[in-house]
Amino acid sequence: MAGATCDMSSILTNYITTLYPPIQAHPVPPGLLSSLDNDKFLTFAIPESSSELAVDLCGWAQNMPNLWTREQVLDWFSYSIERNKWDASTIDLKQCDMDGQRLCQLSRQDMRTMFGGLGDKLYDHLSQLKEWQTPPTVNTGIPDYELNGDPFQWDLICDLIRNEDLQLEIKKERDYDFYADRTMDAGYYSDPISPASPESCASAGTVPYSPQAGDSSAGSDLDIKSHLKRDVFSNKNDVTPNKRRRGRPRKLASDCRDILESKKNKHSARGTHLWEFIRDILLNQDLNDGLLKWEDRTEGVFKFLRSEAVAQLWGQKKKNASMTYEKLSRAMRYYYKREILERVDGRRLVYKFGKNSTGWRLSDKVSQGC
DNA sequence: ATTTCCTTTCCTGGTT
DNA sequence: TAACCAGGAAAGGAAA
After folding, report:
1. I want to staple A256 with a disulfide (CB 3.0 to 4.6 A). Which of A23, A96, A163, A281 is the partner?
2. Which residue ranges does the record annotate as region Disordered (predicted)?
């Protein structure tokens, strides 16, 4: 019996690890990892301007704005509205309905006319993105990281490069064999929905989706690489050292992903939301192992096949051994009100993604292994 | 220190 | 009878 429990635990652990691999599992330069374990990490200087720019780079500047689809343009508007804490009700969404080419043709005055006070901010942000999209092809002499196509790794780098001390660490490590002759794995493209959003990570470790596939931000790995190098190694003059980041310091966790997650979403970490956890299982059919299944893929209807096993998995992720389907389902029912889930009446163990859930639609992600 | 969000836990009562 | 559903209430943890 004990053995069986142990086996189950082992299976679940493996499952969790596979679905949400700790970032340490990937090769990260030793200097960087040691810095993560250092308390200094919590109080490192975060230069506002460069950090925000770095976030943008990691999220938006991976595709030429003039190549954005209408959906991507809308996503960008949405992101910008939120980023600037703008009252969305003052924006006529019809004005946002354009593709990237049209967007890039707008002058500052056009933006002002269309979006009022937000127009300047939009124009400036777009200009920054366009500028970052045309980096000089200067060989910095700095070896690349091996990212293994893992978006968490990208996030880690994005996070680290905003940190002056870590920049020094990186330089110290520049001759370390670890990076030597490494090349970038082009297996991942970040989601434009929002920089480092949960959605962008939904396909993490699953199936990279192609920029040609239509909806997502594209952009070559070379673009990103150039951006990273520029931010890490070229913008030293922009840095204001030892300025503490606003708000509560991030918790130092053994799981580096937690550290990264804390900045991505107002209140949640990637995969921490139950509905995202469920979604990710559904999108990882190879790992699903009969836990959940799509009843109607296009409508977002799914069914729990092994409800208690899913609950245990959720509990394992939340380090809560007492999680049950009863409790999990209560949390699921709270999503009805927020329209993240919709009721499916008369069907046991069946739920449906609602309009406020993202990342599960076939149009959201092409080729997610579903 | 406070507020907000997202659960988690417990519960009662109903349905399949 | 067991399993599940619905939702109220209170509380906890984390982040802002």
Report:
1. A23
2. 190-221
Q: Amino acid letter at A59?
A: G
What is the edge-to-edge ordering of all strands in the sheet holding A341-342?
Answer: A292-296, A301-304, A350-353, A341-342
Taking 70 as the threshold, does the pLDDT of residue A149 lie above it?
no
Domain ranges in chain A with CATH number 1.10.150.50? 1-20+57-132
Instruction: Output phi, psi for A294, to 5 deg.
Output: -75, 130
CATH of domain A1-20+57-132: 1.10.150.50
The C-alpha atoms of residue A77 and residue A94 are separated, in whole angstroms, by: 11
pLDDT digits (tens, 9 = 90+) for A228-265: 222 322 232 332 333 333 222 323 333 333 333 333 33
Kindly report the bases of strand C lying within 7 A of a protein C-beta atom: 3-9, 13-16
Burial class (CB in 10 A: 0-12, 13-18, 19+), A247: exposed
pLDDT tens digits for range A280-304? 889 887 768 889 999 999 999 999 9
Per DSSP, A92 falls in state -
Which residues in chain A are classed under CATH 1.10.10.10?
274-353
* Band (A81; pLDDT cuts 50, 70, 90): low
Closest residue (Cα, C1') to C4: A348
pTM of the entire structure?
A: 0.42
